[in-house]
Amino acid sequence: MTFRQFAYRNVVRNSRIYGAFFMASFFSVAVFFIYSMLMFHPDIERGILGEVSLIGMVGAEIVLVLFTLFFLYYSMSAFLEARSHEFAILLHLGMEKRQMNKLIFLETMIIGSGSIIVGIIFGFSFSKFFFMIVREILHLEQLPLYVSWEPFLLTIGVFTSAFVVICFISVYFKRERKLLDLIKGDAYINSTSTFSQVRAIYGVALILSTYVLAFIVSHTSMIGLTLLIPFSATFGTYYFFSDSVPFFLDLARGKRKFHWQRYRLLSLAEQTHVMMDNVKMFFVVTMVSTMAFLSVGVLATMSSYTTQYDRLNPLGLIYKGDVDNPYEGKHINSLRLQLEDKGLSYHLSRFVVVKQTSSYTHNEVEVFRESDMNALLTSFSYPMLNLASGEAVFIPYSEDSLKKLKNKVVHTVLEENSISLTIDSVYPEIVFPGSIVSVNSIVISDEDFVNLIKPVADEDIVQPSYHLFTFYIPQWMETKEIGKDIDDLTTNEYFIKKDKHSPFYFENAGLNYSYILATYSLFTLVGVLVATVFLLAAGSFVYFKLHTSLEREKRKFDVLKRMGLTDTELKKLVNRHLFPQFFLPWGVAMMHSAFAFLMVQSILKDIANISIVKEVFFAFGFFVLIQVIYFYLIRWRYISHIRS
Fold first, then answer.
1. Helices 97-137 and 3-13: crossing angle, nearest 10°?
2. CB-side exposure of 8: number of CA atoms within 13 Å?
């Protein structure tokens, strides 16, 4: 029997141990290959997102590769630990360390090669189905299956390199252990693990300080504090599992009345050993789960914005320009012709907006005429305004502004023209998007508006008055092709020529929504798969660690059964053994994510006036359901193995 045959038979003989490692590797390869197929697809590159889609896919590939490297390394280390007894026998029989390393390398490459081949076959088999989903998500006319050498070469190259790197790291950076400890196999216990009361306090203090920082950021404008949050959360989490939890368990064992109660004596002793021996595993599961939660939280944020876009942007097309804008007539006529050619009904309203200085705030205020405003309100079927001379109403720029201005009464004077006004109400509906109207916008009567003769006193204002054209279009989602030439000209004025002031501004809600929806759909696609990999990995870390100690646990429970442990008592002990390992890291991760979402919600409320509370609660509930199902599946396998 050659050395290669010996390595191959070792893999086959240890298929139960290496089976989970193979499944993890094969799933990672399949996901990476599907992403590669999508990344190199010619229809995606020519799609509405262009380079954005490529950047998103490349970013997802990089995240997956880095995480997969770490995930496979951890899995490899766990299963090498499970075979320590076998390695000890080979070393005892005279195998050299160099030959041992070669054996591990060959075994790893056999598993890696198999997982790459099966993963690519599986990924290519499901690519057509995946493309059908992507086509619907991105609203593409077609997304056919294609064959190209690029995805195959990229996947083979990346994962072959990954397995080589993992093998060398696992072999050469693995801690040295005595032959006697290797012979003990999974009975080996790292007796040097201790906890520190000082570090235990540090762990709790750092986590609490992280939550306090998140709360402060969510209620103030001190955004710079967010830089401290990842560091305090990371170090606090590690100290929490390495020292705080063992410290609390030690306190519990010191309470004899609590400790010496039925199963607590056994379960607390077992949990102390588990916590001390698996600090890194709990830390990794917590941080990985937190990243998965935050990934879905970002998707929930984008989902909230897309679902609320119609309410936040009630108009279809908006054209804003200087009073002497040379393009005005040409552009407005072009937009009308394009809408009529496409068969879209619309209602055009024209505004003349004048800027003045308010004596109440001494700031600039934008003044709208009542008749212009009523022309727009007619298209919405909203109630008309009926203002007397000296009366005015606020124009809301967000839902929060409706609440703030509802009961506010302001007595002011438009200083340039000495017009006294009483503003005692706000219009009850949002009629302009926040990007168009300023936070100081009011409507006055026609009688007062004709007296606005003198311009705003501040000479630094380059646009003392402007014309505003609004197109109310019921089918505004179909306008993404309207005004493309004007939108390109706007981009040229702002970004290419870099003019400080453009004579006009154009906004197409349908076009913007198509970009937002496509971007959201792409990131949803990326985020869901990445979050799925994170979640599966987080549960797999626990499973791998349990798998490596199955034989020891079986012997322990065999002793207890001979002492009279019933089947019901066995299940209770297993629950108390597994429950903290599954749900303590997830509980900490959910706490981290909850405060992170609190901070994000506050920032989004100020920027875009959207709420993600409902989406976050739904995501958390979904995650809890997945974890409970996963827990009972592992528990079922664990109990069946112990009983065998």
1. 60
2. 7
Give the Cα-Cα-Cα angle 159, 160, 166 (nearest 5 degrees).
80
Three-class HEC string of 345-358: CCEEEEEEEEEEEE
Alpha carbon distance 433, 396 (integer Å) = 9
DSSP 343-391: T---EEEEEEEEEEEBTTTSSEEEEEEHHHHHHHHHHHTPPPP---TTE
Quick one: which of 287, 192, 195, 198 has its CA closest to 249? 195
- C-alpha to C-alpha distance for 322 and 505, rounded to whole angstroms: 9
Task: Give burial (CB, 10 Å; 0-12/13-18/19+) of 144.
Answer: exposed
CA-closest candidate to residue 583, choices 285, 234, 250, 210: 285
State both tokens at 589: 């991760």
- Nearest in space to 123 (alpha carbons), one of 221, 25, 227, 6: 25
Torsion, Cα 634 637 642 644, to 10 degrees, reads 180
Residue 368: what pLDDT? Answer: 92
Distances from the Cα of 622 to the Cαs of 296, 301, 619, in angstroms?
11, 16, 5
pTM of the predicted structure, to 2 decimals: 0.61
Token pair recorded at residue 66: 């880095």
SS (H, E, C) 532-548: HHHHHHHHHHHHHHHHH
The closest of 19, 29, 23, 21 to 162, measured between CA atoms, is 29
* C-alpha pair distances (Å), 562 with each of 13, 263, 555, 556, 580: 31, 16, 11, 10, 26
Strands 391-394 and 441-444: antiparallel
Q: What is the DSSP letter of 477?
A: G
Crossing angle of helices 509-548 and 567-607, in 10° steps, is 150
DSSP labels, 91-113: HHTT--HHHHHHHHHHHHHHHHH
- Structural contact between residues 111 and 21, judged by C-beta atoms closer than 8 angstroms: yes
- 461, 466, 471, 477 alpha-carbon torsion, rounded to 10°: -20
pLDDT at position 41, please?
A: 75
- Mean pLDDT per block of 10 residues along the chain (644 residues) reads 76 70 78 81 59 61 74 71 72 77 82 88 86 70 78 89 80 54 50 70 88 76 70 87 80 60 57 67 78 70 63 79 84 88 86 87 87 87 87 83 82 87 86 78 89 78 83 80 77 55 79 72 67 67 67 71 71 75 81 78 58 67 78 79 71
Helix (H, G, I), strand (E, B) or coil at 148: coil
DSSP string, 306-335: HHTHHHH---SEEEEEETT-TTHHHHHHHH
Strand partners for 349: 470
Helix H, strand E, coil C: the string for 395-458 is CCCCHHHHHHHCCCCEEEEECCCCEEEEEEEECCCCCCCCCCCCCCEEEECHHHHCCCCCCCCC
Quick one: DSSP state of residue 175? P
The tokens describing 596, both together, are 């992170």
The DSSP annotation for 294-305 comes to HHHHHHHHHHHH
**Separation of alpha carbons 204 and 212, rounded Å:** 12
